[in-house]
Amino acid sequence: MSGPPALCGVYSRVYPQPRCCREPLHRGAHESVDGHEFFASIGGTWRMFEAVRSSATGDVSCLPLPAALRVHLSTTTRHGSVHDQDVSVDPTWWRTVLGDTGLPGDPPGGTRRDGHTRELLCRRRLFELGDTVGHRSSPETVLSFLWHVMAWGSPPRGRRRRVSSLVGRIPETVDALRTACEQAGSDPVAGYRTLRPRGSGGPPGLGPALSTGVLYFAGGGRADHPALILNEGIAAALHAQGWDLSPTAAHWSGRTYDRYCVLLGRWAREASRQLGRPVGADEIEVWLSCQAGADPAASTRPEGRSRQL
């Protein structure tokens, strides 16, 4: 280093020198310079920049596990919050619509409520149906599963139109569903793109949120299944937690869905370590639904709020 003392002092703060080559002239220019401290401060600044950049670009990988979520998970079990969660369905409506359209598959149904025509459909039943869908499943089996997923989360408004849009499109829809359900266990993004291919609307009647429901229930209830439900209520709840992506389903690309599944998977692993019990990512999905006020049972009650799935 052979510049003037001031320049040497600046340089030494960027690249600390053990000894200045012109020490007699620059005495004191290199005093109190700690290289580790300097680069630690630079690293902290970089991490702050990365957090801001991640938020701006929709990268949710840095979002911390919400404290309220941790408290909730410490007081619940996966079986109680996930498997036993139910919604109200009307089998009569489904029998009428499927009869009118001539579409195959069993109408959704569940446990009958005393004194009511509606029945309770729980996630456990959907897991059982999802386990039956594979590459060689019959069209009736695949469509029975689809009708149950629709009944679980698709809002009543427009539901008949969704079902009717499949008339004359059964073979390609069944093929897409079979493929996506098989992909869901190892690559949920591939399954999502099978149902929502770029440049195409995909199988008629399946929106982005409903497609994620198909992928999730295809896991048969396994806690380590990587596919998860993403609907507008959940996206809005995540937005409140710092997710800067649009809660509008029209903007959910495969990359968006991937980031969502990765985030909830990481939160589940962190919660498992902190609580000392296995936490399923779908437990977090249920919590986010509740944060958004998206009660699943409300999606099929005339007086309830609809949940976009």
Lay out the secondary structure.
Blueprint: H1 5-14, H2 35-57, H3 67-73, H4 78-83, E1 86-89, H5 91-101, E2 111-112, E3 119-122, H6 123-130, H7 139-153, H8 159-164, H9 170-184, H10 188-195, H11 208-217, H12 232-240, H13 254-275, H14 281-291
Antiparallel strand pairs: 1-3, 2-3
Verbal overview:
With 309 residues, this protein is mainly α. It is built from 14 helices and 3 strands. A 3-stranded antiparallel beta sheet has the order 1-3-2. β2 and β3 form a beta hairpin. The N and C termini lie far apart (66 Å). The C terminus is likely disordered.
Proportion of strand residues: under 5%
- The oligomeric status of these chains comes to single chain
Class of secondary structure makeup: mainly alpha
Q: Roughly what percent helix?
A: 40-55%
Main pleated-sheet profile:
3 strands, antiparallel
- Globally, the shape reads globular
Which strand order does the major sheet show?
A: 1-3-2
- Number of beta-strand segments: 3
What would you report as the Rg, rounded to the nearest angstrom?
27 Å
Uncertain stretches of 5 or more adjacent residues: 21-25, 27-57, 294-309
| Number of continuous helical runs | 14
Average of per-residue pLDDT values: 80
